[in-house]
Structures
1.
Amino acid sequence: MTNEMWEAIVNNDSSYDGIFYYAVKTTGIFCRPSCKSRPPKRENITIFKSADEAISAHFRPCKRCKPTGEKLPDEEWISAITQYIDRNYMENLRLAHLAQISHGSPYHLHRIFKKTTGRTPVEYIQMIRIEHAKELLICSQFSISEVGEKVGLHNTPYFITLFKKLTGVTPAHYRQAALSQHQGGHRL
Ligand SMILES: [Zn+2]
């Protein structure tokens, strides 16, 4: 079990629902991460990727969080994925990977994501990356290519093109404009 998973269990973090399940050796029961039952001792936990795997290992589903219950509605499913993107935007995120961790096919994920958020998964990832790049351009001394790398866009020309496409200006201009605004503020 990773620290990330442990944190999710302790905080009843529903954004991890469907991503993993945890079983408790001492009770023989398994739960969704969001289950409100008292957090078990860390050493008693076994992690499973699916409810089926937990059942195969002879654990019983929790009556409270019903981990084998109905499939997550689309919105909850997509919100778990957007939250995953929000946390991992700097990684190499591919649709196939997102589909794998969210237990759906890439085609289905793409379609439901677009239907629910109005954006494709790729568009959403790009938007989040550019939002974080804006912050770094203003609040850090990183070079343009370093900013790109920090938000998962390792190809600098592509980073600049994408930034301009979404904001209307290049990263350098964006930083310059923010800086001169800042200095102007000081003069007042
Ligand atoms: Zn439970």
2.
Amino acid sequence: MGGYCMVDIAGALAVLGQAIGIAKDLREIDRGLDAGEFKARMADLYGSLADVKMALADAQEELKAKDKAISELRGNFEKRAEMVERNGFKYEKAADGEPQGLPFCPRCEQNLGRFYRLAQTNGPRGTVKCPECKSDYTHVQGFNWR
Ligand SMILES: [Zn+2]
């Protein structure tokens, strides 16, 4: 989640203020203004408006990214409510309230706020690995799926 959205909007508003100032100058301008100066002011105006458009497009992208992050966090939050903890590991909760399958990686939950289910390795039963951070855990209890 980037934090520059507010800055982009503030920047867009500042440039928009300048553009409005230029437009106001042009409206109030004396008819005696020469064509070259008028053209230069118009070029300033177009340039300012193009900057505003770009800043708003950036801000829109940023808002989209934030929406995505929010829905992801909400999904994780809902997922957490459907879990049950055993020996410090979080498992998916079966219909009867008991844990089922292998637990999720506590390290990834801590560091990323995401849930990755640990996978049994070729080693002894209960020796599992996280598919994401590759952490190894031993003596991890697995429960039957129901
Ligand atoms: Zn992990």
3.
Amino acid sequence: MERQELYRERNTQVLLSKFLSGELSELEPVYDPKVGYRYPVVEGIVGDAEKPEVFLNKLFEAGILERNLYDKVILCPKCGTANISVHYCCPYCKSFNIQKSSLVEHVKCGYMDVEENFRKGGKLVCPKCREELKRPDVDYRRAGIWCTCKDCGKSFDIPVTALFCRNCHTNFTLEDATIRDAYSYTLKEKAKGEAPSGWMIIAPIRDFLVENGFEVESPAFLKGKSGANHMFDVAAYKGENKQNVIVIDLASSTENVVSEQPVIALFAKIFDVSPESAYLIAIPKLGENGKKMAGLYNIQIVEARNQKEAVKAIKERIAE
Ligand SMILES: [Zn+2]
Ligand SMILES: [Zn+2]
Ligand SMILES: [Zn+2]
């Protein structure tokens, strides 16, 4: 039920139409050092009305979107920025001015030391037995890291981590940090089947009508003279008195031709509702009978092979 409600929302329809049309296969967050991750595509859809994360989470919880953990963002506890650097520090004096080296072990004689002490020109030579080490994992192996503090001079193998805010210069620890998950999103298979494919067409038409000063409902329920409510895929009108009413229905056929049935259905509805103009979008095309009837009933036909053509054609016709 909750999903059905979300499907009726314009924002859901616009985002899903991007997935359904293939414009978007996976919604990935984009890194912004100030705030962490952002979703510019979603920002463009929801505007200031809602936080993109809140909107996406709603679709995730309703089972429309699938999410995958993409990254984790550390936020400064003082200023909230995501512009954080990780410092590896000396466990004795806490200075982050440390030098990291690799430990190297000569397999044959067992001597172990930091890599710098093995370096002789471009070669690795054992300082104890003077043998050259050529083959990694055979002559020698790397045995972890070894750090030296440049401030207090002590050495250690495991540094402690500290966090530094590049914005407000606060030093803090993991204990005080806020860690936020960032997700990438895909459309659930189930939602692909549930979402009417007509949205790919309806969402951009809807936006076009809104830009041109119309109030738009989709799907729309209009009351006729008989008192009955009729559903249209899109209804648009101007002003409070609902003037210049335009109704649009969509009919598509998996075969080559759309039958006259949707023309008859649309006629029955407009006979009762009396809109200013009525359009039927037929994908890919309308049969001859349907065309004749549409002419008689004063229904404007827009034929299009695909989503893109349909949107372009109906925009041109309405603009006329
Ligand atoms: Zn800060
Ligand atoms: Zn130190
Ligand atoms: Zn050796």
4.
Amino acid sequence: MSTTTIAANPKPRLPGPAIPAWTQWITNLLPWRVNLDSLGFMLKGARQFGNFYALWVGDTPIYVVSDPQLVREILVERAAEFHKADLVKHAVGSFAGNGLFTNEGDFWRRQRKLAQPAFHHGRIEAYGVTMVQQTQELIAAWQAGERRDIATEMTKLTLGIVNKTLFNVDVRAQADQIGELMTVLLIGANDRINSYNPIWNRFTQQNQRKEAAARQELFTMIDGIIADHRQHTEDTGDLLAMLLAARDEDGNPMSEQQLRDEIITLFIAGHETTANALAWAFYLVAQHPAVEARLMAELAPFDGKPLGVRDLAALPYSEQVIKEAMRLYPPAEGVTRQAIHDIELAGYPIAKGHTIAISTYVMHRDAKFYPDPDRFDPERFSAENEAKLPRYAYLPFGAGPRVCIGNSFAMMEARLILMTVLQQYQLLLAPGQMVRAEQVFTLRPKGGLKMTLQKREKLHGQ
Ligand code: HEM
């Protein structure tokens, strides 16, 4: 009888696609890992098996979760029973080392506490001036009617902003070079997610060599930033100065290695994701004239004047637009964990060390939470509608103790950039372009996002 099955079998096997280990790289895993249609593959899995299923690779499961209640359990209520997944630590560890993103336990707690003041509300308000200033400087170089890759422009911009605000350095002159390094590093991280597959590994050897060179170049750059800072005798008050001044209970400063790991982590985590959120927002706004008209109506009272953080209160629709763009295209597609000991989740046993992949992308496109889920509709995030969403069904920044430390920074930055650009330019999708999302660690527009820059007529009174 079906009601006795679970009792008779204390270790039920969570249903899901079963993939013989030897075929993994040519069958189901190929589209997922190698990115032919990894996102479609995840959506299909959830449609077939529900919000909690296992991808069985031979006997090894990867648990795929897109259920808000389970998200709450894993990331919040039982957070102490999980660590970041080895898969991800292995993927980014070669450049992000033991920084905030990958660190664990008491050491992570201490480092997070050290960094936290740089992200306090009062502090990030001051960053708003840099955010708007650097956006204006970027667009001052744009020519009316020209075509640019907006994904690249946004990456340069957010890279400049995170470096100026957190480390008080201007890296904009090296932005193209850094952009190339970042791409090599992220492709390398993606490759390592596949690295249990020896055949795939052989294909990626060339990139491994490129990655080693890119990593070295980035380390040299970061060491230069740290050395420069050490020469300042005055307190610059930025995050790097705070990390340099920090002492442990024995009075020792942070090790050089740890310092570099923290800086690289913030350097990378602090720009790539926000740039993607913005690229997707411009892409979506360009296709929805009514949304753009509403944003312009919000901007009208400012009459072209430079925006500041305090103006954001009068620009609530800009927040709805950024949130909805991140619903459809969450820059961090998912969050991974592994249990630190054998546990049970929703009645199923999860063995210590097995990977749990929370798919933000799948959850954000679930019609149960978001009716007509593929439609871009910022109204979903009006105060009234947002309050009706189940808690943890919206997860762009993760949740619980490991929630993104830069979430308020990123929201403020994305809104200020979006609105400052729109004040001066209408961005039109270059004709004939097929825009697709690709998952290269973060969710980016594949091949960039070419847009034509149409200068707005000067507003009345300017
Ligand atoms: C739209 C922009 C951003 C998105 C979508 C995003 C997303 C995320 C997510 C999902 C996590 C949690 C990962 C997990 O639990 O495994 C995370 C962590 C983190 N993010 Fe962000 N992030 C963004 C912007 C930023 C910015 C601007 C910064 C810094 C300036 C930043 C720094 C970090 C750091 C250091 C962590 C690790 C925190 C910890 O574990 O203590 N992020 N981010």
